[in-house]
Amino acid sequence: MTIREFQLERYFARWEFTAPYLLSASDCETVSVGELLNLANVPLSELGDLRLGYTESQGDPGLRTTIADFYSRVTPDGVVVTNAPEEAIFLVMWALLNPGDRVVVQTPCYQSLFELAHYRGCDVFPWPMLETDDGWRMDLDHLADLLTEDTRLLVINVPHNPTGYLPTTSDFDEILELAHRRSLWLLCDEMYRGLEYDLADRLPSACDRYPRAISLWGMSKTFGLAGLRIGWLATQDRRLMQSLLRLKDYTTICSSAPSEFLAHVALKQAEAIIQRNLGIIQTNLAHVREFMTRRRGTFAWREPKAGPIAFGRLRKGSAAAFCEEVVRGSGVMLVPSTLFDFGDSHLRWGLGRLNFREALSVLDEHLGTNLKNLS
Contact, 54 vs 214, CB < 8 A? Predict the structure, then answer.
């Protein structure tokens, strides 16, 4: 069986480093190594003295201890550091699943959350988000119907990419209760954890609430440090952890020593980094709200609740064709919903970059000149 092309990543490979303006970036503005070390008051000599040998397969013990501090019921032994969240997703799918297993996945989603289970030979069922006039929501009745007796794994994403949706505490509790009733495994992609616009809306990590949950987080989205290529899995289940570690011997074995060092530095400054990134997002939200008010005839805006991403609808025409014309005509890259296997009407907006206002202005000028041709 041949694995399907990763549509979103191929699209980014095509445009990310050639288009002058990225309006669909899924991460937050990054910083330099020097800026990060200065923020933490760590001298450059500490990085310079680092030995470039192998690191521990499960991850540096100090880094795992710091990661475990973000959870209430997970110890450092319940954390495995991976080379990017993508490796973490792969490890979970291969550790838990066998051909023929039933898997339910919240959609739209990052393609590997769906595709790797399918490639493993599983029967994969989408659990789609619902769009309403008031924004996005979950259909929990539909989820209850999808979770049959033979369901092996439920995959969710909280906060959600690409919609920016964040469930209420009661809805999240109901999802966990549905998983508990079936005693199924739950993989919760929490890559945007920490970027809730209202701290009161922040949900507990799934791995702290449900013993058969695996929580995924990393440095790329919330912290804007994608270049470190560091992610991790957290779980209370020790047997699962051993399975993940045995598989990791066949993938990357261990992570990069400089990346683990810098990830540890960053996580010690997590609150400062998160507040910086939330400030950028909130500033850009104000800009995009004004833009969407003026362009309401072209777009239906759906306000996000967390993270640097939102999923608005194009009122007329093909989103894929719209994005192709816009990037070629103005140099502004937007991502169409076709890359999420979610129809051809929506666009993902990335709110985490400092040049967002400039990119939005370029798009606005382009629409003013070419809107009739884009209808």
Answer: no
C-beta of residue 186 within 8 angstroms of C-beta of residue 212: yes
Q: Going by C-beta distance under 8 Å and a sequence separation of 6 or more, which residues neighbour residue 30?
A: 224, 225, 226, 227
Q: Where is 231: in which H helix or E strand?
A: strand 230-235
Q: How many CA atoms lie within 13 A of 363 on its CB side?
A: 31
Q: At a CB cut-off of 8 Å and minimum separation 6, what does 203 contact?
A: 158, 166, 167, 169, 172
- Do 49-269 and 7-32+271-374 have the same topology in CATH? no
Mean pLDDT by 10 residues, the chain (375 residues): 93 96 98 97 96 97 98 98 96 98 98 97 98 94 97 98 98 98 97 97 98 98 98 98 98 97 98 98 98 96 97 97 97 98 98 98 94 61
Neighbour tally for 171: CB within 10 Å: 15
Between strands 213-218 and 130-132, the pairing is: unpaired
Structure tokens at 95: 């550790």
Fold of 7-32+271-374: Aspartate Aminotransferase, domain 1 (3.90.1150)
Say whether 333 sits in a helix, a strand or coil.
Answer: strand
Taking phi first (over 0 means left), then psi (-120 to 50 degrees means alpha), and beta for anything else, what does residue 374 get?
alpha
In the numeric block, the tokens 């769906």 are attached to 114
* Residue 113 token pair: 């959350």
Nearest Cα neighbor of 186 from 170, 168, 207 is 207
Positive/negative CA dihedral, 353, 359, 360, 361: positive
Cα 97 to Cα 121: distance, rounded to the nearest angstrom: 9
Residue with tokens 């045995």: 246
Q: Structural domain boundaries of the chain?
A: 7-32+271-374, 49-269
Fold exhibited by the domain 49-269:
Aspartate Aminotransferase; domain 2 (3.40.640)
Contact indicator for 124, 114 with CB cutoff of 8 Å:
yes
Residues 6+ apart with CB under 8 A from 10: none
User: Is pTM beyond 0.85 here?
Assistant: yes
